[in-house]
Amino acid sequence: MITSGRRVLLGTALALPVLALGTVTVARPLVSSASVRPHPPVHTSAPVECSTPSIDRLQQWLASGEGTTVPATGSLLVPRGDAGYAAKATFVNDEWHVLVVWLANQFEAQVDLSSSKGFWLTYRATDDLYVQLRPASHWSGGDKWLTLIPATGGRTVTRFFSFAADHWSTLPELGAPAYPFAEALVEARGLVFVGKTPNTIEFDGLRIDGYQPPCR
């Protein structure tokens, strides 16, 4: 673990217990995809941002209107005090909440991530949440491949999340996808962050190995 100010660079395999969500008890993924085995690729310097608000050239950070969130709908992007933008959201109540990032900056587009090793996420969160990799051909519904995004205890951290299939799992409450994880990588339309508990979240970076989003 490397600490620099309040930002912590992490990459550890986590063995996780069972999490009770509402009245339904579901099993967390046994291993977070935040792993350094094998070692992730080098975290490169920040890309040139788009002319409109973006984080690592990702312009569409959206509250979907599913669950009680602040903001309720629309863009999550807000100016940062130092430079650039952050994506901020609050989950309210014990219910499912949904935040969406379009990987190619428009809904109709998709990206082939089959050659990518994973992504680096710089964030802070007061409680655990999950991220789903949603393909264009199976966009709707909660039955998606997902991995745990661990709470950070109020710290801003950078973690690497592997795209290795054995790092992604499902939740019984949301259902199992009817397609393999490899298909989600080939047809990736968005990363969708979901959580069922109150949470205060800030995203400051999201860089995908081998992929640079096009500005729209």
Polypeptide structure, described:
- This protein is mainly β.
- It has one helix spanning 181-186, and strands spanning 2-4, 7-10, 18-21, 24-27, 61-64, 68-70, 73-75, 77-79, 85-92, 97-102, 118-125, 129-135, 146-149, 156-162, 188-195, 199-208.
- It has one domain (25-40, 50-208): Jelly Rolls.
- 3% of the residues lie in helices and 40% in strands.
- The strands form 3 sheets. Strands 1, 2, 6, 8, 9, 11, 14 and 16 form an 8-stranded mixed sheet that branches.
- Strand 3 and strand 4 (24-27) form a beta hairpin.
Order of SSEs, N→C?
Answer: EEEEEEEEEEEEEEHEE
**Per CATH, what is the topology?**
Jelly Rolls
Report Rg: 16 Å
Please give the number of β-strands: 16
Q: What are the low-pLDDT stretches, counting only 5+ consecutive residues below 50?
A: 1-31
When the domains are counted, the total is 1
- Which word captures the global form? globular
Give the name of the CATH architecture.
Sandwich
Helix content bin: under 10%
The largest β sheet comes out as: 8 strands, mixed
- End-to-end Cα distance: 36 Å
Amount of beta strand = 35-45%
What CATH first level would be assigned? Mainly Beta
* CATH level-four homologous superfamily name: Galactose-binding domain-like
Global mean pLDDT: 86
Total helix count? 1
